[in-house]
Design goal:
Order of helices and strands: HEEHEEHHHHHHHHEEHHHHHHHHEEH
Low-confidence stretches: 89-101, 467-489
Radius of gyration: 26 Å
Largest sheet: 4 strands, antiparallel
Strand content: 5-15%
Mean pLDDT: 84
Shape: globular
Number of domains: 3
Number of strands: 8
Helix content: 55-70%
Number of helices: 19
Distance between the termini: 59 Å
């Protein structure tokens, strides 16, 4: 547990090459994300040894230091303050030179790691990750509004809460367009302007492929495609128009060309894709629910470890737009349950490892609330086998929830972000009590299977036994030396 974020930031900064080596700073729920000029100046092993650091991850675009929920924001603020102070003075004189020296190394490294698939997934994550705080906040407000409605409490307040929770989702296409244009190198406000047509009520008067369009048709997928198209149109115009015309014609042509193509092509096509996603999710769970839950719950932890789970956000958001909830998130949340069970087993078995047990005690509350990185990087992944047995627990919990989906009890979530016990207020599907019962049963299954698999198979034989008798401070009988052989003469 990090008690002094300023001390932690001061320890991290020199280990990543100092202020001159840091080109950008950001953070998500658990990770400090750094852009670096020269990757070779980072001391990975020393970073992992800093108290409170749970691990480091590199995805080619950023260097990520896993710090855990809550503390990462405070450490990031302290890190940025130190960074600003360090760039005032002699160190600032070397920043440009260091950046130029590291540019070639960084370009070569990105070329090695930037496969088309990884680049696409990273970009999708960078577009949607900044939206997560709003998705969480609006989702929880929606859960409160639903609870008050079901209990028939405060009827005068529930319409206001519903408006607060629904406004962001109604305009999420604009935010997606803004972030997409920024990610692809266009003008963010133009991306938002082009994507806004997707949710404009007036599109109901437009006919495409013989069918009247519906406001919101295509959802975030249509907004994403519209903003990408708008960025390419903008770049094409800026490369060909003289400066005197660029100011007027580039934004006009960007909105006109990409907007018309969005109305007459992209909205219809994205709507078909979004419908297919919803149909596929329903079919998957009602037909092969147990098997699908087994696979999804078992494979989600590796996605979290690689940071690729953020790429699933568009699918969750599409399902929420279509059906009011995502049926995939409760199943994927079972991976966190398996992780909690595995960590509990490690805590019981390795009762003499004080340092590891302290890490588990500090990370377990976050794990119960669905934030898995602290337990992944602080406990299961460094030990090896507990990571695999945690996946087994997640698979069992996913199969449990999937089985009930096959039997007709659908469990969904009205927002993304929270999981574990924090997901209970956001559950939807059938009646809340039944849905919560199935979800709770899945969590308990994940805990139990993750614990048992780790306790019996996740640690090597003899793990957790003391080297000597803790009371007599003598070696165990099996370890006591036998009679000394006679020395040769």
């Amino acid at each position: 547990m990090i008690k002094d974020p300023h001390a932690t930031a001061a320890a991290l900064l020199p280990l990543v090459g100092g202020p001159a080596n840091v080109t950008s700073v950001a953070h998500c729920m658990t990770r400090l994300r750094l852009g670096l000029a020269d990757r070779s100046r980072v001391d990975d092993e020393a970073l992992r040894a800093v108290p409170g650091v749970l691990g480091v991850v590199e995805d080619g675009a950023s260097y990520q230091v896993v710090l855990g929920p809550g503390v990462v924001g405070r450490v990031t603020a302290a890190f940025e303050a130190l960074l600003a102070a360090g760039r005032i003075g002699p160190a600032a004189d070397t920043a440009d030179a260091l950046a130029r020296r590291g540019a070639e190394l960084k370009a070569r490294q990105k070329a090695r790691n930037a496969t088309p698939l990884k680049t696409a997934l990273r970009r999708v994550a960078d577009i949607f990750v900044p939206l997560i705080p709003a998705l969480i906040g609006c989702g929880i407000v929606a859960g409160i509004a639903g609870l008050l409605t079901n209990l028939r409490w405060l009827p005068g307040l529930t319409p206001a809460l519903t408006a607060l929770s629904s406004a962001f989702m109604a305009l999420i296409a604009v935010f997606v367009g803004h972030n997409t244009a920024r990610e692809f190198g266009g003008t963010p406000v133009l991306g938002g302007a082009v994507a806004a047509v997707v949710v404009y009520p007036g599109v109901a008067k437009v006919t495409a492929f013989g069918t009247a369009l519906a406001p919101g048709q295509g959802g975030v997928l249509g907004a994403l495609a519209a903003a990408v198209l708008g960025t390419y149109v903008e770049k094409w115009c800026r490369a060909r128009l003289p400066g005197t015309l660029d100011v007027l014609l580039t934004p006009t042509l960007t909105v006109l060309v990409s907007g018309l193509l969005t109305l007459y092509v992209l909205m219809y096509a994205a709507g078909e894709v979004a419908t297919a996603i919803g149909t596929a999710a329903d079919w998957l769970l009602t037909t092969t629910g147990a098997l699908a839950g087994l696979i999804l719950g078992g494979l989600f932890l590796p996605l979290v470890m690689l940071g690729l789970h953020q790429a699933l956000i568009p699918i969750h958001t599409t399902l929420i737009e279509q059906q009011g909830h995502t049926v995939l998130l409760p199943i994927l949340a079972m991976a966190g349950a398996g992780q909690v069970g595995a960590a509990a087993a490690v805590y019981v078995r390795l009762r003499h490892d004080t340092s590891l047990r302290t890490t588990i005690r500090s990370a377990l509350p976050a794990g119960l609330l669905g934030v898995g990185e602290p337990l992944i990087y602080g406990v299961s992944l460094p030990l090896g086998r507990p990571f695999l047995t945690a996946c087994v627990g997640g698979a069992a919990g996913g199969a449990f929830v999937g089985l009930f989906a096959m039997l007709g009890t659908e469990v969904g979530a009205t927002a993304i972000g929270p999981s574990g016990w924090a997901l209970f207020p956001l559950l939807a599907g059938g009646g809340w009590a039944v849905t919560a019962g199935v979800y709770g049963g899945g969590l308990l299954t994940g805990y139990a299977v993750g614990f048992l698999a780790t306790y019996f198979f996740g640690l090597p034989d003899g793990a957790g036994r003391p080297v000597c008798d803790p009371e007599k401070h003598e070696p165990r009988p099996a370890d006591r030396p036998g009679p000394r052989p006679a020395s040769p003469r």
